[in-house]
Every structure is written in C-alpha cells, then in structure tokens.
Specification:
heterodimer, A: 317 residues, 78% helix, B: 684 residues, alpha/beta, Rossmann fold
Chain lengths: 317, 684
C-alpha cells in the first residue's frame, strides 16, 4: 500500500509540474501587459515600463518561470500585481469559501444521488426508474446560470424566502451562512444528481444481475440483506470515483455560480485575476485547483483500493 | 388412512410435471422448455444432459424460481418433497432456498461475492438458519474441512480472487451443502475446471451426497461426467426431454436417434482418425424458443418420416423405466451414418521430415516480485503431415508455447525456432510472407477471433490476397474451393459472424487458416467452445483437410479423447517442462509418465470402465517457485522413496523408439505398477 501511495504521489507531482508550465506560459499569451492593467489607460508608457520592470515581467520567460516556481517551492505563492500584497491569504480565504459550498453540496448530493440511482436500478425498466433517469438527465443538461437565475427569481425575489447572495457579513453565525448557501447549492445539486445517480444505477443493475447476487438470493437471504451486503458493496465502487472527481469540480469549477451569487470562492478569484492580468494570483489559483483535483482523485483511488479486496492485495504486493 | 395424502416419505424429492417455461422476447412468448416431466427419488442422482440451447440451465433456474425477468413458468408443476414450489409465498420460497434446495454453479469464481471473505459467505447460510455469528463461522470452518480443503482456517479468510478454480468450487459446494439440502442442483459444476481438478470435485460430490443422503440434479453437456455421476439420466433437446431412463441403459442402448447420434459423435474406446471418421449429426440445434410442429429433432434425423414432421411423438415406454419420444424408437439403434467412415489420411511417405523444430525453448515472464518460468528447455519437432497433440493442465505452458510459435510472444535468448530448416523470427512482424502463410492458427473461440463487421467472403479472402497473393478470378476460385472444403455454401459468403452458428464460425476460421496453403496449423482448443454434435463435424473436417493438404497440426486440447482421435504423437507438458512425448498410442496405452497416468485416470469414461486409478493431490504449484528436483514430485503418486525425485530433475530419456519420458522410475517398473493398478481397478 505504501509503495502504491508513493507511486501515485510521484505521478501527482509530475502532473502538477506540467500543469504549472501550462498555466505559466498560457498566462503569457494573454494580450496586454500587467503594468497597463494595473496603472490604467491614462498612465504614461514610461510609467508602465517602470512598473513592469519593478515586478520583473520584462525578464526572459524562462527566468520568470524559474523564479516563480522557485518561490512556490519555498512556500511563497507570489505577490499580487493588483493588490501589491502576497497572494497566499487571498487564495486561502477563497478556498475556504469554496470548500464550504462544496461540502454542503456533497452532503446533499451523495445520499440523494446514490439513493436515486439504487432505487432506479431496483425498479429497473419501470415507472420509478424511468422518471428518476429522465429527471436526472434533464436536470444535468440545464446550465448552472439558467437554474441559478430561476431559483433566484423564484425563492429570492418572488417568494422572498431565501437571500439571493451567498456572501454573508463577516462574523455571521453558522446558520446564517447556511441560509445564504442554500440557493447556490441548488444548481449544483441539479447538475450532479444525474451523473451520480446514473453511475449508481448502472453499478447496481450490474451487481443485481451478477452470479454472486444469484448465489446470495438462492441461499435464502432476505432481499434487503442481499442488496445491502452483496449488491451495494460491489455496485457503488465506481460511483465513489465519480463523486471524488466531481469534488474537484465543486471546489474549483464554480466560476458561474460564484459570480451569479456574488460569492468569494476560488473560481471567482481566478476570473477577477484573469481580467486584471494579475498573473501571480491567476497562476497560484489555478495551481491550487490542480492540487485539489489531485488530492480528490488520490482519495478516490485509495478508497477504491481499500474497498476492493482484489486491488488491495495487489497494492500490498 | 385412505383418502389421506400420501405419506411424505413416499414423495420423491423432486417431481416436475408438464413443465413449460417461456421467455418473452420482442413481445412474443417463446417456449424454451416444453412439457418436461421427470422425478428424482430420495438419494437418487439424476443427470440432465443437453447441448447449448437445450434449456437445461433454464430448468435449474425454474426449479429455484430464479428465472430472469422475461421468463416465466407458463404450465406444469414443480414440487420438492411434496411442496408446490410454484405456489410458495415470498417467505416460504426463502425458506425452501435456505433449507431444502441449493445449487452449485458453472463458474465458481463468479458465484462468490468478490468483496466478502470465503468464510463469511459460507457462514451466512448458518446465520439464515438462526445461528449466531460466532457459531456460524465455526460451522463454516467445519464445512470447509468436509469438502477436504487442506487449510480451512486460512481459506476462511481468503477473498474469492485468492482461490484457484477448484478451491472456489469447493467453497461453493461447502456453501450449498451447509444447509443439508434435500436436493442439490449442480449446473455444469466442473466445466470450467481442469480434468484433474474435475475428477477430485466429482469424487467429493459423490462422497458427500452419500454421506448426507442428498438427492442430486446434475446438469451437464458432458455425457461421460453424467454417466459417472448419475443413476438416471434425461436427454434434453431443444427444450424437450427426448429420452430418459437408467444411465447405463440410456448410454448403452439408446432408443432416441438424437441420443444415438450424440454418442457416436464422441471419440471413445481409443478411437483414432485411422479408424475412420466420427459420425456427426447433420444440421444445427434450432434457436431456443422456435415453434416446432412434429418432432423437435425431425429435421436433423435420418430416420424421420412423414409423421415425424406432422405430429409430436409421445413418450414411449421402450424398456423398463426408459422412455423415448420417437415414433421410430425401435429402429433408433440402426440410425444410418451421416458421414461415410472412410477417410483419406495423409500420405506418410514424407513423414520424418520436420516442419517445425523447437530447441531449448524457454520463456520467462517478469512479474512483480519475481520471475515465472512458463517454459523451461523444451525440445520438440512437428513432422510433415502429422498431428502433434499438446496436453497438460492449465498453467502447464501449452498456450505460451503456441503463442511463441506464432510470434506473439518472444522466447528467452538461446531458444531456437525453425520452420522448414530456416530460422523463424521471434517477432511475427519480422516474419516474411512465406513464413506467415506457412504457419497459421485456429483459435478456441471463433466469436472473438473473427471480426464481426466483416462478411465471410472478406474474412476468407483477406489471407488469400495478402498471403497467397491471389486476386481476381483466381482468388474467387480458391475462395470457392475453401468454402466447399469446409462444407459451407455460397450463400454463407455474404453473411457476417453474428448470423452464423458456433460451428459455422469455426469453419470460417479454419478456411481462413488454410487460405495461404499452410504447412502447419496451430489448433488451440478448436472444439472446446462447441457443442458435441458440432465438434465431431469439425474434427472430421480437420482430419479431411489434413489428408488433402498434407498439413501438420499442433493440436492443443484438454479433452484427451479428442487429442487421441486426431494425434499421431502426443507431448505432455507440466509446469513448462516436457514430461513425456511419443507416438499417441504408446503414450495412451502406457507405460506412461505418472503425470500422464493421472491425467488419463482423471477423465471419466462413458463405457463404464473405471478410470479413477490414481488421483493427484493438491493444486498445480506456482510456476514462480517450481519444486526442486522433478517438478512433478509434489503431486506424484508414484514418487520413489529414495529421495531422488526431490533432488534431481530427471532427464528426458527414450523408453521405446520415439517415446521419451522424464522420470526417475525405470520404465519396466512403471509398466508393472500401471498394469497391476489397471487390474485392481477393473477387478474392484
């Protein structure tokens, strides 16, 4: 197991390194220069040049990259061009906010998605299955900005039961924060329900159809025991992987929802940084999301291995 | 007592009467089992034999009420110990499954839950019976001891993937017998196992069923296994029981043309190709569920007359306790042959000239944690026009040898491969067109060996164009020759594999192999995916083609009857080493290597002669750590007491002209031991 983990970690480091290069050099391709973006359209050309020189963006790209990655390795994420202060605290705060939203979404979506999928599989081909599958599919095709606006109009403006912005004043209680996060979570649940339910359904149908499920039934076990002990254990393994990869998306991919609900998450931070040519912020933000994805899939793989005796003994060997 | 229901003791364990099972396919009900009636008495074992599509597995599922969603029992009744199975409520059905009827399946590996330990899965049966967890686990371990697992404590904690096939099947058997059922259903329980393992499992089942006085329903396509295991048999064809009766009577004096034909398809009593062709049953099994007027077998039956096509024959009492559904049951024994027995055999004048030479062939695989020597120093030649049979259990290296010959796997350095005296490149991509054309293969499973998108014409034409360099009219001419040679028709040319039966697909594969006028064809279990009635036709075809084209075969099979029928010489592999090689008759008649002896005595015989002279203990050792000395010594029943077998690997020495053996025991001693064992077996 330790060797397996080490190998996986090694791979993750290589992936992150490749990602860092892509992010860095892609950032350079964006038109315009940081000095102009920070100082505004009326600053003189010489002032822009001086600013660029001060922050070092007039150096050769390779030198800039090495300086940047060197800083990263020493724990310094760089200094924001726009705020002229270290990037770290901004990223940390944003990631914290994103994680709150993601966790709330996961707490709702995992039981809902799995229950929906398993239920559909148990009623395979019948009305319950058809409606769950159809609803899941329909919901996941609605873009977040459409469902987001619909819930804002419905619950926030027409019914006035929930706040339409996710941001809360500093020092708000847990319940207030929760109250504010309910609306933004709804579009996420709608998007992900179909995915997770479909995986859970497919896995359960396969396991119900398996020879070992037959063995269990013909042993005279109750249907509930067959499903709990024999079917679900094997059926939900692939679903775990899907959930973990979606965790990456929930934390790092919510630009639209965060913007719509005016929420200071990492997605929105990156968007702002990209618009303002704030490369250190942009790069650090994207790399952070990369790390989140990496960790999420790593956890998924480890869980998958732990739950699957066949892989577990291979990993041990 | 009059008017009262019969004493429960008088009830047979299983009574099936007028059973009809239908599957709903595309909105239509298709009957797959029709008017099936039979009984299994207390402690009796009943064999249900049939080819694929005969409905035998459906019967098993119907008995346990585990038919797929689209299947239902549309008529008839099933009663187990007097209880009407079809009328049971949910809890009653659960109780029946938990305590009265249990089942053993074809693929033990898949019948076990991959994520639960073996012990836990057996213990569940006791928990259903009301035992607490601790007691259940203890009793599970007792069950493992009962099925003769060497180290029950350890096996309890293993997951299914950590068990070999034979071991997994023992666990399933332990599970099935845990509740001491009145009826044990075994559905092809040994089909996925090696012959030596099969023999052990069959011994175990026979022993335990007597000990626990369980009735048995044994379902199999293998007539010899049924003959060995069952008191009475039923022959199922296209969903109908065409004949049933005491096993000895049905197999000894069959009265239905299908049973007669089926028995003639199997090479028996040491039959060889130079004794003539096997008889085959013409045509194919009808697809399951097709509506038939008249007798289901009429269209393949040489005895069929007008009335056979018009009315379904009733079950005639043809002998005491024997019934056959045939109007012409009196003449069934004289069923005319479908194929003439005479067969042109290859001209052996050119024999002696080697086509393929293999010298000091080794193959080492590197796996995590070490190296596996799949083949170790093999020397073999295949001569022109001969068939070399290659036998051995799974893991013996048969397939590795074939793959190396075909250039799909590279041998270790120092190995020598020659074709017609010139070196054969180890990598198939570096072989010339001549060599590619000269060395062809027929795979076990024609389903996966043929591209599903291509027509038969394209499948066979491709090697003709690529390897034989033909085009235009000459290609078409050769294509038609080949099609006729494999007994197919022009109308098949436009079909795709999905439209062909298994036997026809294998014919296409054979035609493809013969396209480039090969000198040697590697046949890797070419008939083991086919039904018995189809197998005979394919074996005849292979023998005919050999006579016509002077081709050599390297014939790999686990079925020793088939190998004996087709082979001129036999090579026996064990753990990647050659144990014995020699003329087929010498190897079969003996004296043979103790491993060969064990393989032969593992094969159940249809002729009632006892073959269980010796049994191999335990599993084939891992090739990653082969035993020192003779690799076979850990399982050898004839190991010498001097310790030489544990220490030195015996050389491959000639014991008779052309007959080589790798054994420390002098051949005279082997001859004496094996002769006296045979006498004891036939005397006892």
């Amino acid at each position: 197991m330790a060797r397996y983990l080490l190998r996986r970690l090694g791979l993750a480091v290589i992936t992150l390194w490749i990602l860092s290069m892509i992010v860095f050099f892609a950032g350079q391709v964006l038109p315009g220069d940081p000095g102009r973006a920070v100082l505004g359209p009326f600053a003189s050309a010489s002032a822009v040049r001086a600013y660029d020189h001060q922050i070092g963006v007039d150096r050769p790209l390779v030198v800039q990259y090495l300086a940047w990655i060197g800083g990263m390795l020493h724990g310094s994420m760089g200094t924001s061009y726009a705020y002229r202060s270290p990037v770290g605290p901004f990223i940390l705060a944003a990631i914290g906010n994103s994680a709150k939203l993601a966790i709330l979404a996961l707490v709702i979506i995992i039981p809902l998605g799995i229950a929906g999928g398993v239920l559909a599989a148990l009623y395979y081909g019948r009305a319950a299955d058809r409606s769950i599958s159809l609803l899941g599919l329909a919901a996941s095709t609605v873009p977040e900005f459409v469902s987001g606006i619909v819930v804002i109009i419905l619950f926030g403006i027409a019914l006035k039961v929930l706040p339409i912005t996710a941001a809360t004043p500093p020092g708000s209680s847990f319940l207030t924060q929760l109250d504010h996060l309910i609306l933004p979570v709804i579009p996420l649940v709608l998007v992900l329900f179909g995915y997770i339910a479909r995986m859970a359904r497919a896995g359960t149908i396969e396991a119900l159809d398996s020879d070992y499920a037959r063995t269990a039934t013909l042993k005279g076990l109750r249907k509930g025991v067959v499903i709990r002990r024999h079917v679900l254990r094997n059926a939900l393994l692939p679903t775990i992987t899907v959930i973990a990869t979606q965790t990456g998306y929930l934390i790092g991919g919510l630009v639209v929802v965060e913007t719509l609900f005016n929420y200071q998450g990492i997605g929105r931070l990156i968007l702002t940084a990209a618009n303002g040519k704030d490369f250190p912020m942009l790069e650090a933000g994207v790399l952070t999301i990369g790390v989140v994805y990496m960790v999420a899939t790593l956890i998924a793989d480890v869980l998958y291995t732990l739950l699957n005796p066949r892989l577990r003994s291979e990993a041990a060997g | 007592m009059t008017g009262q229901p019969a004493e429960p003791d008088a009830e047979p364990t299983l009574r099936v009467a007028g059973l009809e099972v239908t599957y709903r396919v595309r909105g239509q009900d298709r009957p797959v089992v029709r008017d099936l009636s039979f009984e299994i008495g207390r402690q009796e074992s009943f064999g249900l034999v049939g080819e694929s599509g005969s409905g035998k597995s459906t019967v098993a599922l119907a008995l346990t009420r585990y038919l797929p969603r689209n299947g239902r029992v549309s008529a008839g009744s099933i009663s187990v110990g007097g209880r009407d199975v079809l009328g049971l409520s949910g809890p009653e059905l659960r109780d029946l499954r938990a305590s009265t009827v249990s089942m053993v399946y074809q693929e033990p590996g898949r019948a076990l839950n991959p994520s639960l330990r073996a012990g836990r899965q057996i213990a569940e049966v006791f928990e259903v019976g009301g035992a607490d967890k601790r007691t259940a686990l203890d009793r599970a371990e007792d069950m493992l001891r009962k099925v003769q697992i060497a180290d029950p404590g350890q096996v309890m904690n293993r997951y299914p993937h950590q068990l070999s096939g034979g071991m997994a099947q023992r666990v399933v058997i332990a599970m099935a017998l845990a509740a001491e059922p009145a009826l044990l259903i075994l559905d092809e329980p040994t089909t996925a196992l090696d012959a030596t393992v099969e023999a052990e499992v069959l011994d175990l089942v026979s022993g335990l069923r007597r000990e626990m006085s369980t009735s048995v329903l044994f379902i199999s396509h293998n007539l010899a296994v049924i003959a060995r295991m069952c008191d009475r048999v039923g022959v199922l064809y296209a969903g109908e029981l065409v004949e049933d009766g005491p096993a000895g009577q049905v197999f000894g004096a069959p009265r239905h043309p299908y049973t007669v034909g089926l028995l003639r398809c199997i090479p028996r009593r040491g039959q060889r190709k130079d004794h003539g062709r096997l008889d085959a049953i013409p045509g194919f099994l009808p697809p399951p569920g097709r509506a038939v007027t008249g007798c289901v077998f009429a269209e393949r039956c040489a005895l069929a007359v007008g009335e056979c096509h018009q009315a379904a024959p009733p079950a005639y009492d043809v002998a005491p306790d024997q019934r056959a559904r045939c109007f012409r049951h009196a003449e069934a024994g004289d069923l005319p042959r479908d194929t003439p027995p005479e067969m042109a055999l290859p001209d052996t004048a050119g024999a002696g000239e080697p086509i393929v030479t293999i010298r000091s062939l080794s193959k080492t695989f590197t796996v995590p944690g070490g190296q596996v020597r799949a083949l170790a120093g093999i020397d073999l030649t295949v001569l022109r026009g001969e068939t070399l049979g290659l036998v051995g259990e799974s893991g013996s290296g048969k397939t590795t040898l074939a793959r190396i010959l075909l250039g799909l796997s590279e041998p270790d350095r120092g190995s020598v491969l020659e074709l017609n005296g010139s070196a054969l490149a180890p990598d198939v991509r570096r072989r010339g067109r001549d060599q590619l054309a000269a060395l062809r293969i027929v795979f076990q499973n024609p389903d996966s060996a043929l591209n599903r998108r291509h027509t038969v014409r394209r499948l066979i034409s491709r090697p003709l164009a690529r390897l034989a360099g033909l085009s235009g009219a000459r290609l078409t001419e050769r294509l038609m020759d080949l099609i006729r040679a494999v007994r197919m028709e022009e109308r098949h040319l436009t079909m795709r594999p999905a439209q062909l039966s298994g036997g026809l697909k294998q014919r296409v594969a054979i035609a493809r192999a013969f396209g480039g006028q090969p000198q040697i064809v590697v046949c890797d279990e070419p008939t083991s995916a086919l039904d018995v009635s189809v197998q005979a036709a394919i074996l005849n075809l292979l023998a005919d083609l050999q006579g016509k084209e002077q081709v050599s075969y390297l014939f790999i099979s686990h079925d020793l009857g088939v190998v004996r029928y087709l082979s001129d010489r036999i090579a026996v592999l064990y753990l990647g080493r050659l144990m014995e090689v020699g003329p087929a008759e010498d190897v079969f008649r003996g004296p043979h290597h103790p491993y060969t002896e064990a393989l032969l005595s593992a094969v159940p015989s249809l002729d009632g002669q006892r073959t269980d002279r010796i049994r191999l203990a335990g599993e084939i050792p891992s090739a990653a750590s082969p035993p020192a000395g003779c690799v076979f010594h850990t399982r050898c029943p004839r190991k010498l007491p001097t310790g030489v077998c544990e220490e030195t690997e015996p050389p491959l020495g000639e014991v008779a002209p052309g007959h080589l053996m790798s054994c420390h025991i002098p051949v005279q001693t082997l001859r004496r031991l094996q002769r006296s064992a045979a006498e004891v077996a036939s005397g006892g």
